[in-house]
Amino acid sequence: MSFSFGFRLLYKTLEIIGFVNRVQLRYSWLNKLKTLRHMMFHIFTAAGMISHFISTTCVARRYMPEFYQRLFEDITSCVYYFDCMFYLLNYDRIHALIKFMDTSFCYANDKVVTTCVRRMRLLFIVVLIRNTITMIAVVAETQKPVSQEEIDVLAELYHDKYPERRVPVRYWLPFIDESESWYFEAILTFAFYQFTMVAVMANVCICSIPMIVLVINAQYTILAEYVEKIGHEHRDEEGRRIRYTNIITNEIVYVEEEGRNQGSRRYEEKPAADIVKDNEIIYVRELSEQNEPRKQIQVKGDMAEEEYQQDYFRQVLQFHQMMMDFQGELLDMYHPFLTAKVLLYNLTTALCIYQVTSNPTSFSESRKFKVICELIGVAQGFYLICFCSERLDDCHGKLRQAVARADWGRSSPKIRKALQVLLTMAQTPNHMEILGGVLVISNAYYQGMVQFAYSFVNFMKLKMSA
Question: Based on the structure, what is the number of domains in the chain?
Fold first, then answer.
């Protein structure tokens, strides 16, 4: 298992639907077909979004409830589409980060790695199920009968010959009556295709930030375990004294302890047939009591303990600096997309709350279910961003707790000063920020945006009643 599992899963998903076209197949004619599918995907998606936006601004604006619903669809489709463009426009940089995660991240704790990968897979499945339910609710709502009053409104708004035949998405198609066959069947098929693509893009959009944060949080968990060992005597699970030569790859050497039987206490490399390597972790085992010639390894038993502790702390600082650089590069690369996503989530939250609270008694049961599913989807995506920002700040909290559990008393004055510097660095906030730090994404920001959305809804109600 690898920490890059999340990125690879998202890329594979986008490759399946044709959003990206990077994987080369064996035959050239298949590659040409993949390229054609990739081009047609973006042409159809862009044409559908533009046609839907024109219909919203030119037709649906004459009836405000319909206008808000179509505007919500425009904004959400734009958010999902352009957020996925992050993976298309930054493919080379993200591919380099994937290689970095595979080769330079720490895999010392198998339990942490397995938990991280399992959570990424579970997140992807849960969000996909939720998006699928929402899309089914949107399509099913158009197949349910509605009141005669609503049919009359739609007939006057769209000038359809058969207003009871409704499509889930309204496109601007001049000189075409969408309710007539065969136009109705063709538009319904295209809408179903677009809904499927939007559901997949929504899955990538919602899962991208949580997967990034899960990886960073797992690395900080491993780092905190190493920080706790500062000043302590290092031993393996069997109680043997060890020294770390590289904490990232978990390379260790065993140290001879005084007072032991030196004739029978030796250490060796495993024979070639028994060598075990997992992510460059080196395993050694104790030589048995048998008098067989074995090759011994050289240990750093002559290194002074204080010198080793300084070397160990240097490795910890390098680990921490690597994580800071990785987080900074990834979030800086994603910052423009994050800013647009957060601001548009604010607007879609207000639109959803308005539809739920504005005269819900006139809604049919299917429409209520559709609107509630849409509200849950938007609230989930928005809250996950704020929740992940809090988890990033908790990474520094783990470091602070680990520094507090380190053995300050047995550490040298030089290491104590370095621990103070590390503690100072861990006390700085680690939230995600947008607009140059003007807006700090957190749970408090989410609460403020929900309150702002309710204020917007109340304002719209007063304006409609005036």
Answer: 1
